[in-house]
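Quick entry between incubations.
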Amino acid sequence: MADILDEIKSMDLKASRLGEWEFEVFTPKDRLASTLSYLKSKGFKAFMGLSCVDWIAEGNFELVYILQSYDLGLEAIVKTKIPRQRPVIESMGPLWKLCEVYEREMHEFFGIEFTGNPNLKPFFLENWLDIPPLRKDFDTLAFSEELFEFKEDETHGIESPKRIE
Amino acid sequence: MSEWTEIVDYFRGRSMWMLHYCTGCGAIELPPTMTSRWDMERFGITPMATPRQADILLITGYLAIKTLKRVIYTYEQMQAPKWVLGFGSCTINGGIYWDSYNVIERLDKYIPVDIYIAGCMPRPEAILDAFVKLKEMVQKGEAKGYEKYVKNYDWYKANQDRVLKRTSPVLKEIEKVTKIG
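Done. Structure below.
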């Protein structure tokens, strides 16, 4: 692992070891594609997942790409930050086709735009009209109370049925 | 109530086919209930594969908005007389998903529930207890949830549409909220 970490550090990227078989790399947004394709060429051929962290206080979304190498027995975690106000980043579909599915999910739950991904239509949610639900500023409790916790008598002007005792 | 109704109700209570709609984790309690350990067949209840031939709809666990739609389809396909059992605390008040954006809170706002089984999870004994109770209610002619659904269809339909056919955002102050970031 040490030689890969040294090489990454020589590319002016922050990288650190997390454990025996795991390391993380921090990359700016515009160097994400080159970092990922470098790691892919080094043997990290398996794309395991993409997730997102909403750092609301600093105003960033952090995208986390997890790669694995079966030959080396290592896992690489590549992190990049994009501004919350304008969350646009290029799609990693050309590197791993599978990535487009994860991007579709991140688009739905965080509202991130992936340029170059042709299929960003709704995935899990049906008829969703509010802001993306996994953003930290989305108040799930208020949403739940508003949509599900309505009083029986005040609904729609129709008399409610007697409850079965 | 004629004598015939009483006789019919008596036999209805002794042979019920159950459709279990396994939405949540509660489904794990059903195999022991069905098989030899607790053996619910001795109460005259067996699983049925299709809604059109089933009498009991057992809803085991939380209902997301998407699943609620399918549950309503299923319920409306079943032929009367039909009964609904809400299983676990998720169907009663949302359970641990009480503040989730995607899980409904109380099932009997959308379809009539005859018996709720409390617990997270209810043990097979609790399920059998509910079956016995339902059998008594059916034989006395008390479990009339399906008639309630027909009589109050407007109310149920309005509640269903409120969740399933939203036309505007639920939270009104979105502009204010999104500016924080």
